[in-house]
Amino acid sequence: MSAHPTATTPIIEVRGLTKQFRRPMKEPGLKGAVRHLFRPRFADVNAVEDVNLSILPGESVAYVGPNGAGKSTTVKLLTGILVPTSGTVTVSGLTPFENRIENARNIGVVFGQRSQMWWDIPVIESFRLLGDIYEITEDRFAASFGELNDVLELEPLLKVPARQLSLGQRMRCDLAASLLHRPPILYLDEPTIGLDVSVKARFRQFIRYMHRERGLTVMLTSHDLGDIEELCDRMVMIDKGKIVYDGALNEVTARFGWERALHLTLTEPDPSALETASRALAMRTGAVATQPEPTLVTVTFDSREDTSGELIRDLAPLLAVTDIRIEEPSAESIIRRLYEGDLRFDPTDS
Question: Which residue from 173, 175, 230 is spatially nearest to 197, judged by alpha carbons?
């Protein structure tokens, strides 16, 4: 990941953005369907509500949240696919839904398993068609395609129809297609879904390369927390249509990374080790001992109340310890717990 951008004018600016959908209210069964036919009832649902967001050129931002939180709706509003109910959206100085053609020239989009390739023609022909659609000159096409071809190693795939490509091969082609016209912004919506570990690694390597070499602005929505950790410095979390956190990814770890685990490996099995440890920790209300293995005692504790040094001082003289390991929570585990509702942001902090 590159250093924080120095530009001060946002390339993406969202103010008071709200998108409302009308949802039919039907009672179950044939009777309910007939009643709705003659006397339809609807409820207004806010998929996105009063969202404010600024992204600077060259930033790489993870836009995350549980299913149904409003992530994909936001991306569709930024691309101009949807029209906002209220609020304003500006991308590279344009209003996306009013300037769809101009906006399309400034963005690249990869939507998970939805391919940009024409299904029955060779991959190279799809690239040439995209070059014509974006009115790319021959010189620019040659330069841009040459770089993408080299980095993504597309040469063996160019004469193959898209329908014959594996998922990983098609993802490489879709990435190239989204960046062929050299847009300053790339939206990635669940881009690595279904990919194996090695293909994901190549995908992430390529995004980092484009971020570094082209100064590409990246907005990523993903449930793959490896994507988030490896590609993004900043995280914006949305829940029930509202942004609940916007800040540095490492601040999430700092804010919620207080839960620690102290693992004490014993020289030999000791059936009394758990009782000994529990007795030694009786006065420490935030520390709990378990014995997952005969030669292992694990103490989970709140680092805001106790330190690992204090716990080691309490336990080491009482147990035959051969090794000590301290485990801190990863950003991945914290974000997963945020998704699941085990942890919550204090609204006064976000």
Answer: 230
